[in-house]
Amino acid sequence: MGGVTQRPTMDLLRSEPMQLVQLIIPVESSHRSISYLGDLGLFQFKDLNSEKSTFQRTYATQIKRCGEMARKLRFFKEQMTKAGLSPSVRSAMSDDVDLDNLEVKLGELEAELIEMNANHEKLQHSYNELIEYKLVVQKGNEFFHSAQNRAAAKQREVEAQQRGEGSIDSPLLLEQEMVTDPSNQVKLGYVSGIIPRGKSFAFERILFRATRGNVFLKQSVVEGPVTDPASGEKAEKNVFVVFYSGETVKNKVVKICETFGANRYPFTEDLGKQYQIIAEVSGRLEELKTTIDVGLVHQINLLQTIAYHFEQWSHLVKKEKSIYHTLNMLSIDITRKCLVAEGWCPVFATNKIQNVLQRATVDSNSQIGTIFHVLLTKDSPPTYFQTNKFTSAFQEIVDAYGIAKYQEANPGVFTIITFPFLFAVMFGDWGHGICLLLAASYFIIRETKFSTQKLGDITEMIFGGRYVIMMMALFSIYTGLLYNEFFSVPFELFGPSAYGCRDPSCRDASTAGFVKVRATYPFGVDPKWHGTRSELPFLNSMKMKMSILLGVAQMNLGIILSYFNAKFYGNELNIRHQFLPQMIFLNSLFGYLSLLIVVKWCTGSQADLYHVMIYMFLSPTDDLGENQLFFGQKFLQILLLLAALVSVPWMLFPKPFLLKKQRVERHRGQSYALLDTSFDDSNETELHHGSSSHEEFQFSEIFVHQLIHTIEFVLGAVSNTASYLRLWALSLAHSELSSVFYDKVLLLAWGFNNIIILIIGLFVFICATVGVLLVMETLSAFLHALRLHWVEFQGKFYEGEGYNFQPFSFASLDTEDE
């Protein structure tokens, strides 16, 4: 028996049996015990120190240390990303690394990397400055060389004019100027540098205005981008030389250069010194380039070493941090030198947890073992379903509506079949189903590769629901065979059609002239219905009635599941005064309608079911006439109508008054408690007494709640049944859209007998089929099937007020965001 209880039940209908457990762990083995429980991943800890802040807890210092190591690892990852490296996934995951040694090692690596980065920045800054200095010297050399050439040419021109004969038109001032003593000429100063090209125009205007035009600016465009020493970013720049006269103007020029972020560099007029400076700068640049390259190689080697161990270190830091977070949730008993933990675990995991705790005691050389004690509690346990990669996606569809209460009937069991089936009813086309199946098969075949990759949001969502898409595709192929539609084209897959021509003249007829010549088509819709004048009325009638049958069946399933919930929880009141009247009301009206549909199909009657249902309420005693489907129908209708009317007050009144009676009796029983009960028992009795009195006082609230519930069910029975008609509407829309794309695009292009038009038509047909029918229609049918499950089906029995079992596990550490 013990072996049987230790295995998981894998029962999706009811969540796993849970138990509240108290662990008394010696301090010396506490860390290893929590670590082993994290490896096992089957124990959810309760926070016993919720009244304390984060900084008041025992292991706040250790968590701070782990946080600091995590910061260093993030710094390493940033550096690896900049260098184009990624963490190695082949690094061995070993637990031999000690946290203290790792902390020291990470500190040393961080200091070394920071020093490398600082040296690299200084060298790179010097390198960029020398590049700019070299450009300034080269461009300045060009300025002065061209200016000297122009001055020499001007001098020669003046001398030639002086040697010639003087005339009345000769510029006297020029002659006077040229014969002036050179010692009396004004000496101009200059400032040279480099400025971003985008600021050069504004720089020139500000210079002119600030100096009132008493400067001369010369600029030259630098070909190609230049790296700025300050920001390290590449930008288009211009070399400039500003000529001025006077110290005041010089100060203004210098301030304007600083304001515009222009980098100033010294410059000499001596041509020999210019070439000497260029040679020195070029040599210095080569030395800096070699030094920078060597430093980068050393940095890359260091980062490669870090990258090899990065995953191991990161996992260890996350693991230690989560362990100390968990230890902070435990209560410390100083006198006994132990930690007290409480939490939930599945019953089947009892032996596993005890074995793990015993192993932790042995490995930590503790003299005292951990005490495992099951507690009795009235708290609601968490909900835990053991799912696999196939059932997890269907369970997530249910959990998106609400987490099941502890051991509440789980709609996920039925959703595995009903959800893809209702989707397929709206999406019935076995050609489109095959396309969906191929897409799902691609993700299923490559799931090992995709599961280790970082996918986009949409791709990850599709990959997570690959088995849901596969089931939807399989059911779509099935319903497509029932509807006999392959991209809206019918096929005689299961034998010849039951209909044929009355005579040879109607061989090509599509609207008249068919008679039944052989047995009924064995499976699905007869292919001869396609293209006939009565195709749409026939399919409309069939799909509408089929939608009602499916809807009533699923709503009945929901109400039946409410019976199993009430039976499981021992709530006889809900069985007698909720389940029974709900079943009677729903089936007296819409169950009877479903019966009429089946009888009409079986008998081939021409009765008008709209007329039957409407006059069942308006004139229940009138004769049915030609709308009578079977003997005794009138009497049955009156009986069902009375049953539906009786079921409404049956749902409304008995339950609130019986709840009130039960509470009064419970209160009276607690008033006569035994005298020899303990003090704790008397306190508990007083507590129940107070709560009972309070609940009794809320009778009006209970009655209003029951009234709302009754009205909601009565009106919902009508609206929910009508809601299932979306199955008919979307199925019709999908079929007609597919038919339009085939007839008006593909066949129309085929009729032109032109290969180019045929290729264009085929391309448009494929795009329309994929974009509209395989993407938009798939999403539409999915959302409608989701609504039918959440509202019409789960609303009948599913409360969804539980909370998930979230065990402490290291398996989830790698999936968490940084």
Automatic annotation (TrEMBL):
Residues folding into a coiled coil are 99-126
Which GO BP terms apply?
A: vacuolar acidification
The similarity comment for this entry is: Belongs to the V-ATPase 116 kDa subunit family.
Where is it found, in Gene Ontology cellular component terms?
A: vacuolar proton-transporting V-type ATPase, V0 domain
Q: Does the keyword Aminoacyl-tRNA synthetase apply?
A: no
Q: Which UniProt keywords apply?
A: Coiled coil, Hydrogen ion transport, Ion transport, Membrane, Transmembrane, Transmembrane helix, Transport
**What are the protein's GO molecular function terms?**
ATPase binding; proton-transporting ATPase activity, rotational mechanism
Q: Which InterPro entries match?
A: V-ATPase_116kDa_su, V-type_ATPase_116kDa_su_euka
Query: Principal localization?
Result: membrane
Asked if Transport is a keyword of the record, the answer is yes
Q: Name one Pfam family in it.
A: V_ATPase_I
Function, as annotated: Essential component of the vacuolar proton pump (V-ATPase), a multimeric enzyme that catalyzes the translocation of protons across the membranes. Required for assembly and activity of the V-ATPase.
Which residue ranges run through the membrane? Answer: 421-445, 466-483, 546-564, 584-601, 635-653, 747-775
| Highest taxon above the source species | Eukaryota
Source organism of this protein record: Hibiscus syriacus (Rose of Sharon)
Q: What is this protein called?
A: V-type proton ATPase subunit a
Q: Name the PANTHER family on file.
A: V-TYPE PROTON ATPASE SUBUNIT A, VACUOLAR PROTON ATPASES
Q: Which residues form the signal peptide?
A: none
Which topology term describes how it sits in the membrane?
A: Multi-pass membrane protein
Q: Where in the cell is it found?
A: Membrane
